[in-house]
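Final report, results section. Input specification for complex C-07:
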Amino acid sequence: MSLYQLSKLLYQLNRDEDFKLRFRSNPQAAAMSYDLTDEERRAVVGPDIGLLYVLGVNGQILMHYAAFCGIEWPDYLQRMRDGVKQHGPVRAGVYAMLSGFDDKVAGV
Amino acid sequence: MALVFAGVCSHAPGITGRSERADPALREPLYAAFRAMGESLRAAQPDAVIVIAAEHFANFFMNNMPAYALGMADSYDGPIEEPGWLRIPRRVVRGNTKLSRDIIREVQQTVDVAYAEEWRFDHGIMVPLHFLDPDNRLTIIPANINCQGPPLTPLHRAWAFGEALRRAADAVPERIAVVGTGGISHWPATPDSGAINENWDRHFLDQWSSQDKNGMLSYGDEQTYRDAGQGGFEIRTFIAAAAAAGGRGTVHYYAPIPIFAVGCTIATMEIA
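Structure output:
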């Protein structure tokens, strides 16, 4: 797993306007600069927020990526819950899910 | 000249970005306390405000992560997030390269701080500035403590960083303010967002307010992660602010606001 490369892609996407344009027009090509597994590439190009979360992407850059994708806050939280339901527990990092699938801690 | 103001505040992006989802009975007193802190800050007439932040992979990443960093530019900009998402317009914030250099030189006597001539503020600084400096008139020197990417700096080093900032503030001719920003317990940007350990928060704030150094430095990261979430790592900013100020603290506002994902806190500390 190349979580570092995946995270770096999202870090750059958050701060580089040119990369944002390239990613919007052709995410598959833009992601080629990073050494990703097929699963990671599929998750980021999708975008599959739930899988990115399970792979261990830091929640702060994942939150920004979700906003970049136009995903509203309640939907962002739900996609992470769905990701854990579908793919299993978070595999790395310090952003694991502790609540249940149906818990809506903040009411959304 | 001297440190003329010290305080701490929350910086969660939901405070501005999800404002309409919060109960107005909680939100409006928070906003009022935030603005009142800004009035106190400005009344102290600081020549510069050192904002001790815990940024979120906006400028510093795992390719080269400093434990401590200070800004050294004449201007900064932010927010790095989409302004529509954070609901804070982009602005250019005034810095002061020469003053930064003077402060960095003094801090380096005890802390090997990194420095940066580029810095784009994320919500960790922009949410506080939105309330504390609505007219964008203050001179800001950003400081960062890595609270995102473990291994994290030990708490006693965060204390030493705060002491170094105080020594620097006392050494330069300018009037300096310090504002620490961070969460206490919180699980931001996860499905657990909104979980807040109020008892843990209040216990930590009691220690902070009473300058209980040993108490504040007693938290291990495993314990903090278990009881206060990964967001709890940001107590480092509160600890550094306490070390800089040295006096007793007053909590002006504390309330868990789950949709803002944190126990929202506004507090100031006497300079001693």
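The two ends of chain B are 14 Å apart (CA to CA). The first helix of chain B runs from residue 14 to 17. This concludes the modelling results for the funded period.
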